[in-house]
Structure formats: structure tokens, C-alpha cells
Write a structure and sequence with these properties.
The chain is of the alpha/beta class. It is about 40% helix and about 15% strand. The radius of gyration is 20 Å and the shape is globular.
Length: about 350
């Protein structure tokens, strides 16, 4: 079976892990700081903090912005529940926005949903294709960029993740770079990041307030740092596969003007039955999936999100990752072309 996702692990990744294990220093230390420095340089952050997951990064960013009960945070409905969870951790109320046809949050919907209680907007760059940050940052509300799927993508030459008040990253097994689990939060504002760092670790504090055990281990950090050095290689490979796919099966990405996606997902619209395509592809040894398991509004039994509903009915995601072999790629094209 050709899997839908597969990490690209090299000998240098294994060597980085081995070096940490041999050192005996496996908790948060030098490797975590090196990973933070690498991201700060690449994204021009004032500071970065490596943490245990992308959800932890979102939670800390919201807390640093002093989001609390009574506040509202706008999030897209067409996204995994990590965003919903992070908002609810703070006691704030989530406000769901519909999306555009590329899966990214719709700026027009966001503007209509804003009230005096709106304290932040979380903007994922879905499927590795940047959202319309140029419009969203003009609304005067802090934007948290969820760059979990988009590391290496850009808009008019500017990296996604460098537009908002905060940017968060995930290093889960399926993401652009991985260390199994883990995440990172970065911002240009050093004072905000001092607050993030303080809240990410509960121990050795002069005063008490509720803090968290969100640190990243050096084992994870060494792995993620090694992967980060290969990001250019990963992005190039994904774009090349996407270009070859597009000859036979056009993708719906990107919609944002002058955007250069990294194709975390290769998403295709079809008029045929999505469930049948997925089932038939698996029977032929190719794991095609929906690009999203279930949107937030369906979990919450809410209505009024027509674009998200349409995407759930019509979109599929093809296997695309740097470790996909030429033979596997041809197999995916053959199976998908016939079924779609």
C-alpha cells in the first residue's frame, strides 16, 4: 500500500538523534535552543520557543495575547480541532468562519464576524498554500499564523509565517518537517515571547501562577533541527511531484495571488463520489484520503458554512511527500487518473 503520508528520514537525522542519546542530555537544553535560533533567523523572529506540540504553541500564543473568558477568537471551520481546543483552553469563545475554495479562511467572512470582543484571528495556511495575509492583517486584530502545514511557502517572496503577531509550527509525523511530535512558536515582539517562554515551563519560578509543562526535549529538537536543514530539499521535491501530477490531475491550489505553495497536500476537486474513489484506490494499493477528517462546525452541530461543506463533498488528497518513489508516483497518477 502506498501511504497517504510518510516521513522522509535520512541517516543524518538518525545521527543527530544518536548524538543526543550519547550525550546523556536528553531533556530541553542546547538542541532546543539551537532549533529556536534556526527558526528565529529564518523567519526574522525576535525570539522562538520550542514546545511539545503545535497545539501547545497555539495555547501559549493566545495566553501571551492575554486571551481570556469573555473574549472571542475567530478560527476557520475547515480545520482540525486543535485550534478549537486551544481557544477553549483559555476560556475564550471560538467564532467559526467559512473558508475559500482553497480551504483557507475567507477574509470577507472574518470581517463580518468581528465584534468589539474579537481579540485574535487564527489563520492556518491550509494544505501548504498561503492564506490572504495581506488582507487579514489590515483588520487591526492580532493574527496568529498557523504554519503547521506551510513551512517554506511564500507570498510574493515573503515567507508564510512572517506576517502575523505570532506564528506557530507543528512537527507531527506527517508535517513538512518532523520529530514525531513537537512544535514551535515565534514572534517579532521579544516581550511577548518572554511571556511565552515563562508560561512554557512551570519549574524554578520566583512567584506562582499557573504555568505549563510544554517544553520540547533535546531528542525531539535534534531531530527537528536536522530536518529543518533539509527543508529546501523537501519543498523542492513536493513542488516537482505536484508539477508532474498537474499534467494529468490539476490541483485546486493556490488561490492567493503570487503565492508559492509547498504542497503539504495535493488536493483535487472531483464531481465523482469521494468515498467511492477513496475505497477503490485503497483496493488498488493507493491510499487517497479526504484532506480534512471533519470540519469544526460539524462537531459542534452548526450550520451555515457552504464552502466548507462543498469541499468535504468534492475534495480528495493524493499521496505527496519527498520519499515518494518514481514508481509509486506513476502508480498514484495511474490510479487517480482513472478514478477521478
Amino acid at each position: 500500500m502506498i501511504p497517504h503520508s510518510r516521513p522522509s528520514i535520512a541517516r543524518k537525522d538518525m545521527a543527530a538523534l544518536s548524538a543526543v542519546l550519547s550525550s546523556g542530555q536528553i531533556s530541553a537544553s542546547a538542541q532546543a535552543r539551537s532549533l529556536e535560533s534556526a527558526f528565529s533567523r529564518a523567519f526574522c523572529f525576535g525570539s522562538s520557543v520550542a514546545v511539545s506540540s503545535g497545539t501547545a504553541a497555539l495555547h501559549l500564543a493566545l495566553l501571551a495575547l492575554k486571551i481570556k473568558a469573555g473574549d472571542e477568537v475567530i478560527i476557520p471551520t475547515h480545520v482540525c480541532t486543535a485550534l478549537l481546543n486551544a481557544v477553549r483552553y483559555t476560556g475564550a469563545k471560538e467564532v467559526l468562519s467559512d473558508v475559500r475554495e482553497d480551504g483557507n479562511i475567507d477574509p470577507c467572512c472574518v470581517k463580518k464576524l468581528m465584534t468589539r470582543r474579537t481579540k485574535a484571528v487564527i489563520v492556518p495556511h491550509m494544505w501548504g498554500s498561503p492564506a490572504d495575509m495581506k488582507t487579514l492583517v489590515k483588520y487591526g486584530v492580532p493574527v496568529i499564523e498557523d504554519s503547521a502545514q506551510s513551512v517554506g511557502s511564500s507570498i510574493n517572496g515573503q515567507l508564510a509565517g512572517t506576517f502575523g503577531a505570532f506564528s506557530i509550527f507543528s512537527f507531527y509525523a506527517t508535517k513538512m518537517i518532523t520529530c514525531g511530535e513537537g512544535g514551535l512558536v515565534g514572534a517579532k515582539d521579544k516581550k511577548l515571547m518572554e511571556r511565552v517562554r515563562d508560561l512554557s515551563d512551570y519549574d524554578h519560578k520566583k512567584t506562582y501562577e499557573m504555568r505549563f509543562n510544554y517544553k520540547m526535549t533535546d531528542i525531539q529538537a535534534a531531530f527537528a533541527l536536522s530536518q529543518f536543514t533539509r527543508l529546501g530539499e523537501f519543498a523542492k521535491a513536493r513542488r516537482q511531484i505536484a508539477a508532474r501530477y498537474a499534467v494529468y490531475i490539476p490541483s485546486l491550489l493556490p488561490l492567493t495571488e503570487k503565492a508559492e505553495p509547498v504542497f503539504y497536500r495535493y488536493v483535487v476537486r472531483t464531481k465523482k463520489n469521494v468515498e467511492r474513489i477513496i475505497s477503490n484506490a485503497k483496493a488498488q494499493g493507493v491510499c487517497i484520503e479526504k484532506p480534512l477528517f471533519k470540519p469544526a462546525h460539524q462537531y459542534l452541530a452548526k450550520k451555515g458554512f457552504p464552502v466548507s461543506e462543498m469541499l468535504m463533498r468534492t475534495c480528495i488528497s493524493l499521496p505527496i511527500y519527498p520519499s515518494l518513489t518514481a514508481v509509486e508516483e506513476k502508480r498514484v497518477i495511474g490510479v487517480a487518473k482513472n478514478l477521478i
